[in-house]
Description:
By secondary structure, the protein is mostly helical.
Amino acid sequence: MIRLNRYQWIVLIVAWFGWGFGVFAALLFNYVAPNCISTLLGLTLGTPEAKAATLFWTGLLASILLCGWGIGGVIFGQVADRIGRRKTLIVTILLYALGSAACAFAPNIWWLILCRFITSLGVGGEWAAGAALVAEVVPEKTRVESGALLYTSAPAGLFLATFVNYQIAGVLLPGNPEISWRYVFLSGLISVILAAIVPILIKEPERWQNTQRNVTPAKISELFSRQNLPLTVSGFLMALAALLTWWSCNAFIPVIATGFAQTVASAQNLDKLATSTLVEEWKTLATNSFNLGGLVGTLLTVPLSKYVGRKKMFMAYFILSSFCIMITFGLPLPGLVRLYMYFAIGLSVFGVFGSFTYYLPELFSTRLRATGSGFCYNFGRLFAAAGPFLVGSIASSGSNALNSAVETLFWTGFIPLLGLAFMPWVVETKGKILLD
């Protein structure tokens, strides 16, 4: 049981919702991609041309999102160390809420790209401020549990995105995929409520306030000093391996589920309404399997990191990630079975992220905490952006888009092995107190 006082629970809950809604806003596009892209490009849904275009543009837009996410994390991480965690939370939450809602009014693919980029700036910045806030407010002995609990908001945000998409596209507007995606994006406005609550409930951490009185503002260049460089390299390499794997897999879950559902619908000669319903049901199944696995995997980082250490914990997750991806997409399994196996992929590929909310803040001192955490966790996204773009480009070039996507995803199983190659540079933080 995590022992926190009333205010510490409030901070954890607010940060939990902030990151959860951020993930919700960031990943809404993946759910509507097959409908959104085809509509904006003037293609008929379900045709080979539409499927190939969906794979390509899903990969490209995921890469653009990652670039904006990385830039936002680096910039707003430094902003949080300068003006405070609370103010940065408000600004970043408003950015991703309004950016996501603006996607609903996209007249073309370029407007959509711009709005997704704005959304991503806010999402990246919110993580840096929220993770630093929680690490500095909760007691030392509960930092690991609090950090992992904070990251459970990520699968929760994806569960919410899954639910909202299904309720709108599968229940309220079935058979209308050309317009339902706009209402899905519009739901991003719900996050504005949280931005209004933050200034009422949250104050700046005493650690940050005391530091601000006595030292000069942090600079990104300090992360590369002789003292901090090993810490920066450690955090960056672990985040890079995890991010490359996650985005190469997750960005295509709804697309893969859609392809399997359309194949079954075609074989059974289902009409448009029945096909649309089946597609939404299978998208929900696949994403819920991944998210549930991610939730369990996130919580498992707590006992693993506390008993075997951060380094061995990372090794275990990367090995399991590689195994699960290769089994899911390498064996000749029915499409429905593959969708259920996303639970195992989520357990490993998604679960490892539960550690970054406490591992990265452990690496840096208070005046550099948000800057360092934001840089390591988000700058890697600029490199990880190549993953979904390459996967989408390669998969879309095949004669059968679905088969090409499955084959390409199998090869992404080698990506987590990069994490094992990076182990000599990983700094162990087990048993260390948070630096002032």
